[in-house]
Specification:
CATH class of the largest domain: Alpha Beta
CATH superfamily of the largest domain: Histidine kinase-like ATPase, C-terminal domain
CATH architecture of the largest domain: 2-Layer Sandwich
Strand content: 15-25%
Structural class: alpha/beta
Distance between the termini: 42 Å
Order of helices and strands: HHEHEEHEHEHHEEEHEHEHEEH
Bound molecules: adenosine-5'-triphosphate, magnesium ion
Shape: globular
Radius of gyration: 23 Å
Number of helices: 11
């Protein structure tokens, strides 16, 4: 499992760079032509395919536990309620969805998009298992796992959890399927129907969050998954800040862009130039140091990739900060590097933007860091 995870994580990382180039050039093309040009339709399709590739890559990274995550303190009920509409669409009209939110639920600290990923995968499986008419039931509740329970359930650690129960009235599973279901690429679905990554992804996400998952299933009796998320009974939930509208905002500051991947560098350069920034562009950390040393004016922002040959982005930022203490830094990467963060979680103090990103996302993040 570990080796397959490393392989998947490595492929996904390179893939993110390539998708970044496809998405970026597509957006630049869209801007370069008149809004009513017939080619817009095709560009839109390219963009959509790139978005789908982003989702697949995210699944691979989630399974490899290399997914970049920004955990938030949240109420699981709220996240699930927000997703109900989408789930219902995924599941179809023949299947009833019963939702029983538990009362006084403890907060959990999870990246909401990971909960979406878990729910989507469990829902897709339940839908496939039901074939026809049936019911899916989702319930939440607080759960305290004691040492006796944990002794009986390998992988469980005593403590407070919020439990999500996800059950279906579908075909159920035989012991053989049950024994393998979390393995990557294990599927009983026909060629072209399932990739076998769904539950491997769920498993990776749950593990990354120090959670625990169990399954009860018998042939003909339906299936029930229990997903346990570590609870934070004493934490307060901060109200959601509304996202800014997806509009690009520019600036006129000087940015030092450091990226070793040529196509990502070209896209980021075009984005920044079109937003009005003055640029210094380097393909390696050494070049960046040279450029900075030879530049007499102010450099407002270092925008750097994290993993590069010779020196990582973090070390580069430290070197530059010694001589330019007011420099702001924004890191971009296809996945979390151990240098930057342990176990895939961001160091809260660093500004980070995961690849691939759109021009609007990029422009807002750059502004946010510059204005901080
Ligand atoms: N709710 C369920 N009821 C019955 N069988 C299930 C259920 N969930 C998963 N399985 C079994 O576990 C296997 C693995 O599930 P998983 O989600 O990992 O892959 P998949 O659904 O086959 O493909 P993918 O999710 O990548 O499209 C499934 O092929 C199926 O045999
Ligand atoms: Mg699946």
């Amino acid at each position: 499992m570990e080796s397959v995870g490393r392989l998947a994580g490595g492929v996904a990382h390179d893939f993110n760079n390539m998708i970044m180039a496809i998405m970026g050039y597509t957006e630049l093309c869209q801007q370069a032509i008149e809004p009513d040009h017939p080619v817009h339709k095709w560009l839109h399709e390219i963009g959509k395919s790139a978005q789908r590739s982003v989702l697949l890559t995210r699944q691979l990274l989630a399974f490899a536990r290399k997914q970049l995550i920004s955990p938030k303190v949240l109420n699981l009920n709220t996240t699930i309620s927000d997703m109900l509409h989408l789930l219902q669409r995924l599941i179809g009209e023949d299947i009833d969805v019963v939702w029983r939110p538990g009362e006084n639920l403890w907060p959990v600290k999870v990246d909401p998009s990971q909960i979406d990923q878990v729910l989507t995968n469990l829902a897709a499986n339940a839908r496939d298992a039901i074939q026809g008419v049936g019911t899916i039931t989702m319930e939440t509740g607080n759960a305290t796992l004691d040492p006796a329970f944990c002794a009986e359930h390998p992988g469980a650690v005593p403590g407070n959890y919020v439990m999500l129960s996800f059950s279906d009235t579908g075909c159920g599973m035989d012991p053989e399927t049950r024994a393998h279901l979390f393995e990557p690429f294990f599927t009983t679905k026909g060629v072209g129907k399932g990739t076998g990554l769904g539950l491997a992804t769920v498993y990776g996400i749950v593990k990354q969050n120090d959670g625990f998952i169990r399954v009860n299933s018998e042939p003909g009796q339906g299936t029930r998954f229990g997903v346990y998320w570590p609870a934070l009974p004493d934490q307060n939930i901060r109200p959601e800040v509304k996202e800014l509208p997806a509009k690009a905002i520019g600036g006129s500051e000087t940015v030092l862009l450091v990226e070793d991947d040529e196509s990502v560098r070209a896209v980021a350069r075009s984005f920044l130039t079109s937003l009005g920034y003055t640029l210094l562009v380097a393909g390696s950390p050494e070049e960046a140091l040279r450029l900075a040393a030879g530049h007499s004016g102010k450099i407002h922002l270092l925008l750097t990739d994290v993993i590069m040959p010779g020196m990582n982005g973090r070390d580069l930022s430290r070197r530059l900060l010694e001589v330019r203490p007011s420099l702001k830094c924004l890191f971009i990467s296809g996945f979390t590097a151990d240098v930057l963060a342990q176990r895939g979680i961001l160091d809260d103090k660093l500004s980070f933007l995961p690849k691939p990103f759109s021009r609007a996302e990029f422009s807002r993040k750059v502004r946010e860091v510059l204005d901080a």
